[in-house]
Amino acid sequence: MSKRKGTYYEHRARRILEAAGYVCTRAGGSLGVFDLIAIGPHDVRCVQVKGGNRNYLSAVEREAIALLVVPGNVSKEAWRFPKHARAPLIEQL
């Protein structure tokens, strides 16, 4: 996926989270584990965003996420935006 498409999907995910009451920060151009961190009144969501029909988390990405220890109120998620889908497919990791 091109950098421009990735940015588009990250902004789309951010708008969804902000509409749900989260304050978000985006790690633009980051090679880190997550693209977005969304902070709500009772929880935090760490989100890896993928776009298109063929983009899934790689084995390396899954391992990096699995090894990350987070507090109980923090969720680790993968959001995938298939083409022409109205809403993302959200996988709890």
Tell me the number of structural domains.
1
Separate helix tally: 2
Distance between the termini: 22 Å
Number of strands: 5
Radius of gyration over alpha carbons? 12 Å
As residue ranges, the low-confidence spans are: none
Give the overall average pLDDT. 87
Q: In the CATH scheme, what's the topology name? A: Trna Endonuclease, Chain: A, domain 1
Keywords:
5 strands; 2 helices; five-stranded mixed beta sheet; alpha+beta; Trna Endonuclease, Chain: A, domain 1; 93 residues; globular
Can you put this structure into words, describing what you see?
With 93 residues, the chain is an alpha+beta fold. The chain has a single domain, classed as Trna Endonuclease, Chain: A, domain 1 (3-Layer(aba) Sandwich). 28% of the residues lie in helices and 30% in strands. It has 2 helices and 5 strands, in the order αβββαββ. Strands 1-2-3-4-5 form a 5-stranded mixed β-sheet. The model has no long low-confidence stretch (mean pLDDT 87).
